[in-house]
Amino acid sequence: MDKEKQQQQFSLHENSKNEGLEFFRVSHGEKLLTTNQAVGVSNTDDSLKAGVRGPTLMEDFHFREKLTHFDHERIPERVVHARGFGVHGYFQAYESMNEFTKAKFLQDPTVKTPVFVRFSTVVGSRGSADTVRDVRGFATKFYTEDGNYDLVANNIPVFFIQDAIKFPDVVHAIKPEPHNEIPQASAAHDTFWDFVVNTPETAHMIMWLLSDRAIPRSFRMMEGFGVNTFRFINDQGKARFVKFHWKPLLGIHSLVWDEAQKLAGKDPDYHRRDLWEAINMGEYPEYELGVQMLEEEEEFSFDFDILDPTKIWPEEIIPVRRIGKMTLNGNVDNFFAETEQVAFHPGHVVPGIDFSNDPLLQGRLFSYLDTQLIRLGGPNFHEIPINRPVAPIHNNQRDGYHRMTIDRGSVSYSPNTLQGNAPLPTPENGYVHYTEKVEGQKIRQRSDSFMDHYKQATLFWNSMSNAEKQHIIEAFHFEVGSVMDKGIKQRVVDMFNNVDGQLAIQIAAGVGATPPSAPGGTGVTTSSPALSQENTVMNPRTRKVAILLENGFNYQDISQVMEALKANGLQAEIVSKNLGILTGIEGQQLEVGKNYLTTASIKYDAVYIPGGQQSIKTLMLQGDALHFINEAFKHAKTIGATNEGVDLLLNSAIQGVAMAGTDTQDQLITEMGVVTIRNVTDINTFSQEFINLISQHRHWIRQNKKQMIPA
Ligand code: HDD
């Protein structure tokens, strides 16, 4: 690397990581084919043989190189979080956090620190589906001027277990069963629930896992949580406990279970495609970084232990302060080089951020480095371009597999006089571990303060809206309903009776178990509004609308709606029986985006049916179109129709459920998230109402009607 490049790489600005990567980027278009030794290749389609029908010759070095490279082009997938998707971006602080931390990237609001984020699912293999019920990983690498800082977070704020020594157990239990490797990417099987009923500390996390949080609508619409308790250290050496949060500006939104399952088949790449496309369109996802901070003296002020990773710090008690914003604005050039090879580690901290004695965190600090050694094949993985800090590296570490750096000089030890003891430690600026006082006997025991496993699970349950509660019950019915062992099912009912009596009764009813005999619950009656997705930001930007269309459509309808959608940042796509061009009543032409084979209602947030007698007549005869509407209705999505379009809705299964009066009246009618208007040319009021309904994400008021819809 020449000096100029080196300088560029080390000066911190929004683009400094990108410039560092530029050095390694190669394009192959309009280039001549060579071997890895840069020798020109004359033919890459026929191996060198002894006679045209004879055996291949050993001396064919091009053949051997090509096959050998291919044979070795897989590395072990991550033991957890194998399926993921990475993107570039930057972080900018809102204000100096100097009072609380000396972390450089949190000092100056004019500085843009480059980041790389990898979103993931936990359980499934690299090729599994995106929309499975699972925790989502949300790992961020900040390339700061003081070195790399990794915030290795999840979209659920608590964890299954309290002590890292149980991590292999919980992962073995939830992964596919070892004898037959079934099921893929799912907790719905005996070994996992066997572990759960034998491990009461999982109760709180299970409530989250079975809630809508575990089936997000988009990586762009979920929160992130550092889970573990960390410390902020300021330049006077004062420490405070801290928990980290990411708050998505688009709000927190989820799929429904039936939709998530169907998407897993129809578009297993749903989440990565959503993120890839949003960034390519310039709709950059944004998340605010939030912190909850506690003074050291407050450590014992709560009815939970602040070091217990199965507990949240309720936001109403300890507010989240939003201290900066991350913008994700760049897709990768190469999935393997960047997303697969990126290596996160909660132990990658910078001065100003330190650890706590959270026993889960303590174990994590060992596991991540260890796993990279096997996954990336040795101790030099920090030299892989995506992992390189933008700040310079100088130390006496040498050699090992895949060493790229050419370290000059004879000195690779310390202390030394030959090099003036360089590279020198810097007591003033270097990382100093917080001098926490610790004393105690060596003991394998859980603290009594970690022993309540149910109160916050009740708090979570109390905080859910009716629809969210219903989803959790249905999730129990699916998950525990998939368990074969009757004893385990019964123990699930009994275990969750500790959380809430009604919940346990309802679980029992769906899984063929006996309702609990003892009264249930913890006595907790409070709730935390921050836990419910009902209270999140409602924003229609980037939502996708399907427009069902055939020849003979009313152009005036569709053009007005499309314009309004675009003006509000929504996406519209025309769906029809065949791809190609459709013609309106007055000859206007529109191109079809997808047909019923290449898409489905599950890939949209809303459906619109414009008028046009002939278009509607054709649609009425199409089972696919009617199914599209029924399914969207069942999934609680916004549906809109104008003029003759209303007749199509009246022909669908939602007629009689949510269409009162629409066959006779001419004014705007909204019922259960279905909006219609007839006999009008100006449909501006319709468009506004349609967008307003889409911004509400889903219409749970239909919850009890969905059984009636055949889709
Ligand atoms: Fe972990 C990966 C998040 C507990 C051991 N973890 C991994 C990733 C995320 C998390 C987002 C994927 C990183 C990437 O995209 O490459 N893990 C968490 C959170 C936890 C947690 C939020 C609870 C606070 N993890 C946890 C424990 C252990 C591990 C208790 C072991 C003691 N995690 C790993 C690992 C992985 C990993 C085996 C697999 C691949 C990797 O590290 O790089 O080391």
TrEMBL record:
Record protein name field: Catalase
UniProt-listed GO biological process terms: hydrogen peroxide catabolic process; response to oxidative stress
Catalysed reaction, written as an equation: 2 H2O2 = O2 + 2 H2O
Free-text function comment from the UniProt entry: Decomposes hydrogen peroxide into water and oxygen; serves to protect cells from the toxic effects of hydrogen peroxide.
Domain Catalase core: 34-422
Cofactor(s), by name: heme
One MF annotation (Gene Ontology) recorded for this entry: metal ion binding
Enzyme class: oxidoreductase
Protein family per UniProt: Belongs to the catalase family. HPII subfamily.
3'-histidyl-3-tyrosine (His-Tyr) cross-link site: H345-Y368
Matches recorded under InterPro entries: Catalase (IPR018028), Catalase_AS (IPR024708), Catalase_clade2 (IPR024712), Catalase_clade2_helical (IPR043156), Catalase_core (IPR011614), Catalase_haem_BS (IPR002226), Catalase_immune_responsive (IPR010582), Catalase_large_C (IPR041399)
